[in-house]
Write a structure and sequence with these properties.
Layout lengths: L6 E10 L7 E11 L4 E5 L6 H8 L7 E6 L2 E2 L5 H11 E5 L10 H11 L5 H13 L15 H13 L5 E5 L7 H16 L4 E4 L3 H4 L4 E6 L2 E7 L4
Parallel strand pairs: 3-8, 3-9, 6-7, 7-8
Antiparallel strand pairs: 1-2, 1-4, 4-5, 9-10
Helix pairs in contact: 3-4, 3-5, 4-5, 5-6
Length: 233
């Protein structure tokens, strides 16, 4: 029995119309499949289209043309409310700047996606505590972000990304604000999640970070320039 891709995109384009100026193609026609359990890195210089691609994969924007199938469902034509539902139910996000809420504790920050879905039940809170333990923060549940190191804040963000048991984890420069020692700890945690079967798509400018992925997508001028395999098939 064949395995369906978690992500399948065909002819994906994102065009910005700038009035009298020429149209700008942030994405100029991208085809890509990502299989379950795969760890994919996306690299490219500023303006290459990598951030635009990540935004489309994260249902934070809609393509101008093309199809995007997430878990077999075409999400490219959904309206804002439907896209919000997909983000809450099927996607987990890890950002360079952590995006934690300063006034909330570690436990409450992990719980945020469940709160917006009205799923903050006692069982869900227990899951949040389990995730805090998974990322090594079960002793800091009542701490607030300013009481944590950068690496600890990113661990909270990783736990938050897992709380809805997502089909796909999207990471945008997840170690960009960390020193080399802390970066290694966070990358090891991401590796662990991937080893457990999580599908991860990560944007990074760091070749060392990208080398931990199964494949590296190199982008230029809104297109995939080449695909690099980092591990034996």
């Amino acid at each position: 029995m064949s395995v369906e891709p978690v992500i399948s995109i065909r002819g994906l384009k994102k065009v910005y119309h700038l009035g009298g100026e020429a149209d700008v193609y942030a994405l100029a026609g991208v085809d890509l499949d990502v299989m379950p359990g795969e760890h994919l890195a996306i690299m490219g210089s500023s303006g290459s289209g990598k951030s635009t691609l990540l935004n489309l994969l994260g249902c934070l924007d809609r393509p101008s043309e093309g199809a995007y199938f997430l878990g077999g469902d075409d999400v490219s034509l959904l309206d804002d409310d439907a896209l919000s539902h997909v983000r809450g139910q099927r996607l987990g996000f890890i950002f360079q700047s952590y995006n934690l809420i300063p006034q909330l504790t570690v436990l409450e920050n992990i719980e945020v996606p469940l709160f917006y879905q009205n799923k903050d039940t006692p069982e869900a809170i227990a899951r949040c505590k389990e995730l805090a333990k998974l990322v090594g923060l079960d002793g800091r549940l009542n701490h607030r972000p300013k009481q944590l190191s950068g690496g600890q804040q990113q661990r909270v963000a990783i736990a938050r990304a897992l709380v809805n048991d997502p089909l796909l984890i999207l990471a945008d420069e997840p170690t960009g604000n960390l020193d080399s020692s802390t970066e290694e700890d966070v990358l090891a945690l991401i590796d662990q999640l991937n080893d457990e079967g999580r599908t991860i798509v990560m944007v990074t400018h760091d070749e060392h970070v990208a080398a931990r992925a199964d494949r590296i997508i190199h982008m230029k001028d809104g297109l995939i320039q080449r695909i690099e395999l980092t591990k034996p098939a």
